[in-house]
Design a protein that fits this description.
Strand order of the largest sheet: 3-6-2-1-9-11-12-10
Number of helices: 13
Structural class: alpha/beta
Radius of gyration: 23 Å
Bound molecules: adenosine-5'-diphosphate, aspartic acid, magnesium ion
């Protein structure tokens, strides 16, 4: 039995008209001789509305109950779409994550998939031609509902594609594929035909929300070919796949940006063994992801440590630093929320030098001040003032010639 997993995002399932487009895509999967597993998100805006409701009704929304609440957005989509398929005479049914089950850990709001039992799915596929599965949701081993983090329906789809041996995992969204940068902020962004898993992983980690990070991790680990394409066109989209020599020939493949950043500095700390552990240990215990870190050269045995975190974690980080600062002997803690990071990504960087210098000089020409820098084998990340982020994306896109069509 050939199985095709197709995932449809919020704008694709927003209205009865767009759902009809979705139905066309499902029909094209059936026409290729496949049984189709359609994974759906909540309708556009629905998850935000449900989260706002929790904030409105509760002073401090319980995380497990928040998941029980926000997961209903996907339940609405799958039941409505299964009805529409049945109207068209297609043998279809909806499935929620607990009915499969998709088992996760109990990190409510950001749960990780532990296992998916394919037995019920396979039984259902024998009886139905299309299964409409709620994305974004899971359930713990002891039966509580979880969600996988914002954008997590992509991960539901890729994980299902992996366990069902899907021919490909199609991710349908509101753009034609993965572009060299966000096409909604850079008019010269170019759609890529292919991108390597590793590059896509960096693009997603550095803020390109077109794919959820964990979906790319799954795809890479289980070698699931992922195709990002639009519900609203017939473009073949972008294939996310193994690296090949054509990809290595390109220095930089894409530019990503992330405005969800905050910068924290501990001033005037003693430069002695154990200081960094005392600062970052308590943050990691609370699950706060520290991204860029800079420690200044020590002056008279004292130094400054600066790091970045997601903006939503700032309040908790500052509370932790209130305790850390006196213990480490830091003189003060300062922070800045008007920062953003811009990253240039490409597997071609492995074999080339001078990429960072080119990025710095392009930003300098436009007088954009660089606040922090971090580099890895296939990525350069630069922290700047948030107000310059869109300009910086365009400048770097241009500096690396990404608007040239080289395919
Ligand atoms: P969905 O609701 O279908 O999951 P998302 O809003 O999560 O859609 O992701 C699609 C959006 O990702 C696009 O509308 C685009 O603005 C944004 N995006 C950011 N970076 C990129 C990129 N490099 N290529 C394509 N889209 C990108
Ligand atoms: N509905 C969820 C969200 O808005 C999951 C998703 O769309 O992938 O984050
Ligand atoms: Mg998404």
């Amino acid at each position: 039995m050939k199985i095709l997993v197709q995932k449809f995002g919020g704008t694709s399932v927003a209205t009865p008209e767009s759902m009809k487009r979705v139905r066309e895509k499902v029909l094209s999967g059936l026409a290729q001789g496949c049984k189709v597993v359609a994974v759906l998100s909540a309708r556009a805006g629905e998850t935000n509305k449900l989260l706002a409701l929790a904030e409105e009704w509760s002073a401090s929304p319980d995380l497990a109950e928040t998941d029980a609440l926000v997961s209903t957005g996907e339940q609405v989509s799958v039941s409505l779409f299964a009805m529409m398929l049945k109207d068209a005479g297609i043998r279809a049914r909806s499935l929620l994550a607990w009915q499969i089950p998709i088992v996760t850990d109990d990190d409510f709001g950001n749960a990780r998939i532990r296992s998916i039992d394919s037995a019920i799915l396979r039984d259902c596929l024998a009886e139905y031609d299309v299964l409409v599965v709620a994305g974004f949701q899971g359930r713990t081993a002891d039966g509580r509902i979880t969600t996988l983090g914002r954008g997590g329906s992509d991960t539901s789809a890729v994980a299902l594609a992996a366990v069902l041996n899907s021919v490909e995992c199609e991710i349908y969204t509101d753009v034609d594929g993965v572009y060299t940068t966000d096409p909604n902020i850079c008019s010269t962004a170019r759609k890529m035909d292919h991108i390597a898993y590793e590059e896509m992983l960096e693009m997603a980690s550095m803020g390109a929300k077109v794919l959820h990070i964990r979906s790319v991790e799954f795809a890479k680990k289980y070698k699931v070919p992922v195709r990002v394409r639009s519900t609203f066109s017939n473009d073949p989209g972008t294939l996310v796949t193994q690296e090949d020599s054509r990809m290595e020939a390109v220095l930089v493949s894409g530019i990503a940006y992330d405005k969800d950043q905050a910068r924290v500095t501990l001033r005037d700390l003693p430069d002695i063994p154990g200081t960094a552990a005392a600062v970052f240990g308590p943050l990691s215990e609370k699950g706060i992801l520290v991204d860029m870190i800079v420690q200044n050269t020590s002056l008279d045995g004292r130094t400054d440590i600066t790091f970045t975190i997601p903006r939503k974690d700032l309040r908790q980080t500052l509370e932790i630093m209130e305790d850390v600062a006196p213990r480490t002997g830091a003189s003060e803690v300062i922070h800045d929320v008007s920062v953003a990071k811009v990253s240039a990504i490409g597997v071609g960087m492995r074999n080339h030098s001078g990429v960072a210098a080119r990025a710095f000089s392009a930003l300098t020409q436009e007088s954009i001040n660089i606040l922090m820098i971090s580099t890895s084998e296939i990525k350069i990340t630069i922290l700047i003032q948030e107000k310059y982020v869109e300009l910086a994306v365009r400048i770097l896109h241009d500096a690396f010639g990404l608007d040239w069509d080289i395919d």
